[in-house]
Design goal:
- The chain is of the alpha/beta class.
- The protein folds into two domains: 144 residues, Aspartate Aminotransferase, domain 1; 237 residues, Aspartate Aminotransferase, domain 2.
- Helix 8 links the parallel strand 5 and strand 6.
- Helix 5 crosses helix 9.
- The longest helix is centred in the C-terminal third of the chain and has 23 residues.
- The protein is globular.
């Protein structure tokens, strides 16, 4: 087995040395070795891809659709993205110049950040937030400004954003919003989005809007900030959550043509283009499967209600999720703010896996995230085990 030459050990990209691996994946991998554990760690839908979507992927393979596609994605897929955004949000993006099909929403976020950031720039991120954002900003040579929202019901208010921007000065380049939010499940109301949009416009900023969970809301309508400031918005979305297509790796970004032209360069340098069969499946989902998420949404809402009831019975508070499929739960007082110890004790002794809230940045400390994108049986057994574990620590 080769070892790296000693004179090369310090020659790698030093920014990579500043970041660690995904805290979510690291915990999930460690917990996987615990016998009989029920893991509620990953945002991985337990449902299957709709049959008509699978059929489109199969047909693509059988038709020998196996060559390089256009770098922005097939026109049929980009027309499907346009169709979906018009039907669901009233957003009008030109499929020729304002949309890129990406390898999941992850690549869309990466391409967006690398398109707009220069060394020394700052990105405001309301936290707790999806852990991927922080290392990507660092690798781009920029700095994150983490805004702890745990004292404001896990939302970034316009007033708070204004205060942060006044403190940070002109080096702030962008605000990164994820809503419904991973890990809290909190959705932003239309009035607050409009208020944030005004602040962002007044300070001449970009906004990267990660709306991957927009189809999974409960009792509220998702309202995209692109409705208010489309000229400043880089819209990120995808099929992983809405159609249980995580393994297909299909996402997209949309924005003004001038920005998308540069983002296309970054996208092309990283991946060239997305796979043909995945694009065929995504196009089918977006053209003909806009009702597919409805049944999934009802199932997730039922699971949310069950988990929330279970936490109430345990005397544990949690953010009320109005979207996504996560429960962000305050750990028992006996653990103080040590969410890592609680998560590991719960996994090793209670046989239930969750992700420590501190993995999601400022404001996550003292919490634990559970994904209820798992089977009803697993969730029921996990809550039973957790009740016994919490009671034993009282």
């Amino acid at each position: 087995m080769p070892q790296l030459a000693s004179d090369l050990t310090q020659q790698v990209n030093q920014r990579l040395n500043q970041v660690g691996p995904s805290g979510i994946r690291e915990v999930d991998q460690k917990f996987s070795s615990i016998p009989e554990i029920i893991k509620l760690t990953l945002g991985e839908p337990d449902m299957n891809v709709p049959e008509h979507v699978k059929a489109a992927a199969i047909k693509s393979i059988q038709d020998n659709d196996s060559h390089y596609s256009p770098q922005k994605g097939t026109m049929y897929l980009r027309e499907g993205i346009h169709h979906y955004l018009m039907e669901s949000q009233g957003l009008d993006y030109d499929p020729k110049t304002e949309i890129i099909a990406t390898v999941g929403a992850t690549e869309a976020i990466c391409a967006s950040l690398f398109t707009i950031l220069n060394p020394g720039d700052k990105v405001v991120i309301p936290t707790p937030a999806f852990a991927l954002y922080f290392p990507l900003v660092t690798i781009a040579g920029a700095t994150t400004v983490q805004v702890d929202t745990s004292d404001s019901d896990f939302v970034l208010t316009p007033e708070r954003l204004e205060k942060v921007l006044d403190e940070e000065g002109d080096s702030v380049k962008a605000v990164l919003l994820n809503y419904p939010c991973n890990p809290t499940g909190v959705e932003y109301p239309k009035s607050m989005i409009e208020g944030l949009a005004k602040v962002i416009a007044d300070h001449h900023l970009f906004v990267i809007a990660d709306e991957i969970y927009s189809e999974l809301t409960y009792g509220v309508e998702h309202y995209s900030i692109a409705n208010v400031i489309p000229e400043r918005t880089i819209l990120v979305n995808g099929l992983s959550k809405s159609h249980a297509m995580t393994g297909y790796r299909m996402g997209y970004l949309a924005g003004p043509a001038e920005l998308i032209a540069n983002a296309t360069k970054m996208h092309a340098f990283m991946v060239t283009s997305t796979s043909d069969s995945s694009q065929a499946a995504a196009a089918e989902a977006l053209h003909n499967g806009l009702q597919d998420p409805v049944a999934m949404r009802k199932i997730y809402q039922k699971r949310r209600d069950f988990v929330q009831k279970s936490m109430d019975e345990m005397g544990l508070s949690m953010a009320t999720p109005s979207g996504a499929f996560y429960a962000f739960v305050k750990i028992p007082a006996s653990y103080g703010q040590d969410d890592v110890k609680f998560a590991y004790d719960l996994a090793e002794q209670g046989k239930v896996g969750g992700v420590p809230g501190s993995a999601f940045g400022a404001g996550g400390e003292g919490y634990i995230r559970f994904s209820y994108a798992a089977s009803d049986d697993d969730i029921a057994e996990a809550m039973k085990r957790m009740k016994a574990f919490v009671a034993s620590k009282a």
